[in-house]
Amino acid sequence: MSPAIIILGTGALTTARRIQALYPSAQVYGLAERVAADISYSDFASQLRELYQSNRPVIALCAAGIVIRCLAPLLHSKGAEPPVLAVAEDGSAVVPLLGGLAGVNVLAREIAAALEVAPAITTSGELRFDTCVLNPPSGYVLGDIDQGKRFVSSLLGGETVRIEGAAPWLEQARLPLADDAHLRIRISTDANGSADELLIHPRSVVVLDPPADSQRIHASLAAAGISAHALACLLCPRERMTDNALHGTADSLGVPLRFSDEAALPFEHQRLESENLHLAIAAQPVAIHSLGQPRGRLTVVGLGPGASEFTAPAVKRALQEAEDVLGYETYVTMAGPFRPDQVLHNSDNREELARSRHAFELAASGRRVVVVSSGDPGVFAMAAAVLEALEASSDPHWHAVELHILPGISASLATAAKAGAPLGHDFCMISLSDNLKPWDVIELRLKHATLADLALAFYNPISRARPWQLGRALDVVREQRSPQTVVVLGRDIGRPAEALTVTTLGELRPEQVDMRTMVIIGSSTTRRFAKAGSEVDWVYTPRSYPGA
Ligand code: SAH
């Protein structure tokens, strides 16, 4: 996962960018109002905890003590532990703090080399042997951590060791090697080792089209004497992509699931069958990216009105995980910043169906795709277009995509909250755009909604191509509603140019409204009163209705 570099002020920015140059997908988090970085945060401790808990490697450019204090409450629950480092603002010290088994010392060495200082490594085994024996590189897994710790203690106590199997990363290490050593490091898929050996498993075993039953898989592996740590992935035909039990099985085994309809595997291997489980065993770790594809994922998200703090955490996570991001350019920009490895596909606002099809093409090929809308994706936005494209498609690969719709705060709700609670009683949302529906239908709906005394939220109220529609809509509403009716105009709500106006139906002029405006017309009961310290009144619609 890409590291998060977190800084408190401008003094650390130069060092942060030097570290970022080392890890181009890393993002610099800066304290809002103090420093403009890639992502801004308002509370250091909660930002740090959030990153730690999402298992991101953290490089904090501040005092080690601050980092320790912030993370201390989380440390006793020993779950996944990402690497955490403290780096001096001026780049003069690099201190690995946590995540010894997640490669913190490797990061510390890399960063220190780039900053031309010595890393403050304190791990005895690492210092003595120049490598962390218990932290093999990706593609390999340590068999048993407790046994590993005893093993390293014995080595530190003066024992010699020999290596059995291919361990290219240990060639550079300064281990006390001896051919007749009784301790050995063995690289093998074997499940069982002796007390004298440290087993490191290459992820070299592919399970072919297994049953969706992790216990059976465990039992069959055990019968074959193969460690579950040696599993590289489960490989299945594409028709099993929507088999939920299969996904559950892969999750509980902790291995990726890949799909391919090719009969041949793209690497040399031996076949083995154990209790009806079919295995392909390679001589080296398997590069799973060369093996078919994962199930693709398409997430349609709503960003909310604008400001990042009104975007749901689930949406932010989807954006972090995205490989491809599609949407109208303004919204894609709003959803950023993105890493250089993320592909942005900007398109015109009117190409919704084409954009949806493109999103499915990408997701069907195994990519993680996000389609962005402003506000809520299901309110006059991309979610319906995406579902329409899916329903019209007979391509089974499109239907096999994992599709999620994540909600956002819609413009009417964001505007209402700014003004008070004008939608506190029954209301209706209506788009005044006659691009996708006849104007007659709009007028009919306006008439009935007005007659029903609903508060009205107008989306797409006016545009250069639709200049007269708002005036006509107001004429319809004015036939039934008094000129004193309270009206709220919200322009660019949640964005820097935010403007809120409270007026009346009698005074409202279409010239006050543009396509970035939300128009809320109150019902007969909507009220306003002075807000202390503000020129704009509070507006609300009481919860109870006359006669109740
Ligand atoms: N999916 C969006 C709506 C898209 S239609 C949502 O749920 O909010 C676009 C219309 O929404 C605009 O013409 C405008 O009327 C309204 N709108 C969108 N963002 C807005 C904002 N930040 N402030 C005020 N109105 C906004």
Overview of this protein structure:
With 548 residues, the chain is α/β, with parallel strands linked by helices. It has 5 domains: 4-122, Rossmann fold; 140-202, no CATH class; 205-286, no CATH class; 297-409, Tetrapyrrole methylase, N-terminal domain (Cobalt-precorrin-4 Transmethylase, domain 1), CATH 3.40.1010.10; 412-540, Tetrapyrrole methylase, C-terminal domain (Methyltransferase, Cobalt-precorrin-4 Transmethylase, Domain 2, 2-Layer Sandwich). 29% of the residues lie in helices and 24% in strands. The chain contains 16 helices and 28 strands. The strands form 6 sheets. Strands 3-2-1-4-5-6 form a 6-stranded mixed sheet, with helices on both faces. A hairpin with an 8-residue loop joins β27 (527-529) and β28 (538-540). α1 (13-22) crosses α4 and α2 crosses α3. The longest helix is centred in the middle third of the chain and has 13 residues, at 352-364. The radius of gyration is 30 Å and the shape is elongated.
Sum up the overall morphology in one term: elongated
Helix content: 25-40%
- Give the count of helical stretches: 16
> Remind me, CATH topology of the largest domain?
Methyltransferase, Cobalt-precorrin-4 Transmethylase, Domain 2
- Low-pLDDT stretches: none
Largest sheet features: 6 strands, mixed
Classified by CATH, the class of the largest domain is: Alpha Beta
Rg over C-alpha atoms, rounded to the nearest angstrom: 30 Å
CATH superfamily of the largest domain: Tetrapyrrole methylase, C-terminal domain
Secondary structure tally: strands? 28
Structural class: alpha/beta
Number of self-contained structural domains:
5
Mean pLDDT: 94
Ligand species: S-adenosyl-L-homocysteine
What's the end-to-end separation, in Å?
A: 57 Å
In CATH, the architecture of the largest domain is 2-Layer Sandwich
Strand content: 15-25%
Strand order of the largest sheet: 3-2-1-4-5-6
